[in-house]
């Protein structure tokens, strides 16, 4: 979020002074591609981490490979759609409305996880979810790429963009969890163990598909023609333009690997809770790093930062109880 703000702060003046309304939104395919394109840096890590010995009792290997192919393909489409909608929604929508609707993603994640993954909720997890939604709404960080008056789309379009991006993100988390549980763990592809190599495989394959889709969109829309002009108009110069894009691409991969790791080792709901609970902390960093007008770390944000401890604590309490129950059953 810090790098996104840096990028748009450097581009904001020239976008508003030079571009008309249609050209204002040309950077969305670029931002969508950046969210996925740095996956090659994970390939060396994939080979460095040891692979467990595959269980020889695994049957239907060809069918398993086919199912994995369709899983990665569908997830790649979902991630590309979310990346595009997320980038477009922030630039054409009222940022407050967009993020307020985006707060419902945890509700969609919970509902879809209950249906697709048969996830079992406890009262402490429900409390954690409700607290997280409140925390996310109160602790929304400011964004330097917000549209000016007259550049926003109609409220119906804004709402559909936000809801579409939200559902795509929630559904992708549920399908990732389903892929781990049904294809990678239960089929004993990795020796019936949860290992970090699974996370890297998932992210590399999904990002590869998403990057191809975003690359096609970049050239089909003609947006690639604007890249050279954007680099020249970047206030800090072309070198900083390239560095900011590289930094964004790398940070998106770190974020994605962390999120998918939480899905593997815990659940999609927990991954979404942690992701949304980071909102007030990000808001604090944005306030400290940028001098946005009227943007301060207000009391609601301070309260949301304190509430993060309660939201995560409620979920961790449930995990502690479940682990304790498993240990007692083993003994």
TrEMBL record:
UniProt KW keywords: Membrane, Transmembrane, Transmembrane helix, Transport
Keyword Transmembrane in the entry? The reply is yes
Ranges annotated as spanning the membrane: 29-49, 69-89, 95-116, 121-139, 159-178, 199-220, 240-266, 273-293, 299-318
Q: Which InterPro entries match?
A: PUP_plant (IPR030182)
What's one GO MF term for it? purine nucleoside transmembrane transporter activity
What is its subcellular localisation?
A: Membrane
Provide the membrane topology annotation: Multi-pass membrane protein
Q: Which GO terms describe its cellular component?
A: membrane
UniProt record similarity statement = Belongs to the purine permeases (TC 2.A.7.14) family.
Q: What is the official name of this protein in its record?
A: Probable purine permease
Species? Arabidopsis arenosa (Sand rock-cress)
């Amino acid at each position: 979020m810090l790098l996104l703000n840096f990028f748009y702060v450097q581009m904001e003046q020239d976008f508003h002074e030079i571009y008309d309304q249609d050209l204002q939104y040309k950077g969305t395919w670029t931002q969508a591609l950046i969210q996925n394109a740095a996956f090659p840096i994970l390939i060396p890590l994939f080979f460095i981490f040891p692979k467990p010995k595959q269980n020889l009792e695994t049957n239907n290997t060809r069918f398993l490979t086919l199912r994995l192919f369709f899983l990665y393909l569908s997830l790649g489409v979902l991630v590309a759609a979310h990346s595009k909608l997320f980038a477009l929604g922030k630039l054409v929508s009222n940022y407050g409305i967009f993020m307020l609707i985006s707060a419902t993603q945890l509700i969609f994640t919970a509902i879809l996880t209950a249906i697709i993954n048969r996830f079992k909720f406890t009262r402490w997890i429900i409390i954690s979810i409700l607290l997280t939604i409140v925390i996310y709404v109160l602790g929304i960080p400011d964004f330097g790429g917000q549209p000016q008056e007259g550049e926003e789309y109609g409220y119906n379009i804004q709402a559909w963009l936000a809801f579409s991006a939200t559902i795509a993100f929630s559904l992708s988390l549920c399908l990732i969890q389903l892929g781990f549980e049904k294809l990678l763990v239960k089929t004993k592809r990795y020796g019936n163990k949860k290992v970090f190599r699974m996370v890297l495989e998932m992210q590399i394959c999904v990002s590869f598909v998403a990057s191809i889709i975003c690359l096609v969109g970049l050239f089909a829309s003609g947006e690639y023609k604007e890249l050279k002009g954007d680099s020249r108009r970047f206030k800090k110069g072309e070198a900083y333009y390239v560095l900011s894009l590289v930094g964004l691409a790398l940070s998106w991969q770190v974020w994605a690997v962390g999120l998918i790791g939480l899905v593997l080792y815990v659940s999609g709901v927990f991954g979404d809770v942690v992701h949304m609970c980071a909102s007030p902390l990000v808001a604090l960093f944005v306030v400290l790093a940028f001098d946005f007008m009227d943007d301060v770390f207000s009391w609601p944000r301070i309260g949301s930062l304190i509430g993060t401890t309660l939201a995560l604590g409620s979920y961790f309490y449930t995990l502690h109880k479940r682990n304790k129950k498993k240990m007692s059953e083993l003994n």
